[in-house]
Amino acid sequence: MSYTIIDIASRAGVSKSTVSRVISGNGYTSEQAREKVLKAIEELQYKPNGVARAMVSQKTNNIGVIIYRQHHPIASHPFYGKILDAILLKAESLNYSVFVTTDREMSLRSADFMHEKRVDGLILISRLSQEVIGHIESFQVPYLIVNGTTDKSDVIQIVNQDYKGGAMVAEYLYQLGHRNVFVIAGPQAHRSHLLRLQGFCERFKELGVEVLSKNIYYSPTSAYEDGYKGLHQIWPQFIGQRPTAIFATNDMLAMGAVRVLLEKGIKIPDEIAVAGFDNIDYASMCYPPLTTVHVEKMKMGEDAVTLLDRLIKKDTVEPLCMEYEPKLFVRSSTQGG
């Protein structure tokens, strides 16, 4: 049998409002009345209805996560999947339940779904349009952005220092003696790939070497398959003057390029060195292990929930833009042995 707070009030001999205060934890209740309510709840094995509880407390203890990504995989992606894992673990520790949805078209549908679920706050992952942000703001619930940016100065943005990471790879390859480099760049509509490419090319230019436009391949996606197809397609132009190093703006593209080189019998790194970005789990498992830039994926997810919790509680949050320091992980794909 399903009981209500009316049944609890009757059993305890108190008012409905007293029961509501005990359940929600808000407002004063005498210790004697509280004990009566808790005893009645135990006797009736009452489990508060989530909707009713939310109406009392104005909170559902649910948060929403929307991953905006055009191409599959999405939730199982080795980069975004790590962020999502961290979000789920941290949310559980703070007693939040999590609704997760993905949106390939950057539509308003996913945001409307979260609004219907009456979430207390939203975590938006990856690139966003101004239309989506404006729509979400109309819900009047706190939100923040992970691995994406907005022009709005009052929105918390959790990002990696991608420009600096790209420059670090350029500096490193230059110090190894590489001057003829080739870049496989992921979709430039995404801030991460754009900034990584800019940081890499501009640092090389500062060092006196220009990365020619013909030495940059713009991949339609950031997937392994397109890293493979891209280098395979461009390979004929290298006849007579192959690059000595390849930089890809994420690890999946880099590993696709590694496969091409191995199929063609190219020795890595003796003939061509390869570097990626993200330090996904596969980077250390592939052959040869991939030199890459580490991104704090787990920390981004954990911090997103921590900060959203503070926003929900109406606490002040500073700074509004959290940037994580990149770290270069050197492996056998650039230095043999």
Protein described:
Strand 3 (121-125), helix 7 (130-137) and strand 4 form a beta-alpha-beta unit. This protein folds into three domains: 5-57, lambda repressor-like DNA-binding domains (434 Repressor (Amino-terminal Domain), Orthogonal Bundle), CATH 1.10.260; 62-158 and 298-323, Rossmann fold (3-Layer(aba) Sandwich), CATH 3.40.50; 162-295, Response regulator (Rossmann fold). The chain has 13 helices and twelve strands. It has helices at 5-12, 16-24, 31-44, 50-57, 80-93, 109-116, 130-137, 162-175, 191-206, 224-234, 251-263, 281-285, 297-312; strands at 62-68, 97-103, 121-125, 143-146, 157-160, 181-185, 216-218, 245-248, 273-275, 292-294, 321-324, 327-329. The strands form three sheets. It has a six-stranded parallel sheet with strand order 2-1-3-4-5-11, sandwiched between helices. The protein has a four-stranded parallel sheet with strand order 7-6-8-9, sandwiched between helices. Helix content is 43%, strand content 15%. Helix 10 packs across helix 11.
Q: Roughly what percent helix?
A: 40-55%
Please, what is the CATH homologous superfamily of the largest domain?
Response regulator
Could you spell the SSE succession in H and E letters? Answer: HHHHEHEHEHEEHEHEHEHEHEHEE
Oligomer: single chain
Q: How many individual helices?
A: 13
| Count of folded domains | 3
Question: Which radius of gyration do the C-alpha atoms yield?
Answer: 26 Å
Tell how many strands the DSSP assignment holds.
Answer: 12
Termini separation (Å)? 69 Å
- pLDDT below 50 for ≥5 consecutive residues: which ranges? none
Shape: elongated
**Helix/strand/pairing category:** alpha/beta
The strands making up the biggest β-sheet line up spatially as 2-1-3-4-5-11
Which architecture of the largest domain would the CATH scheme give at its second level? 3-Layer(aba) Sandwich
Proportion of residues in extended strands = 15-25%
What is the CATH class name of the largest domain? Answer: Alpha Beta
Average pLDDT works out at 88
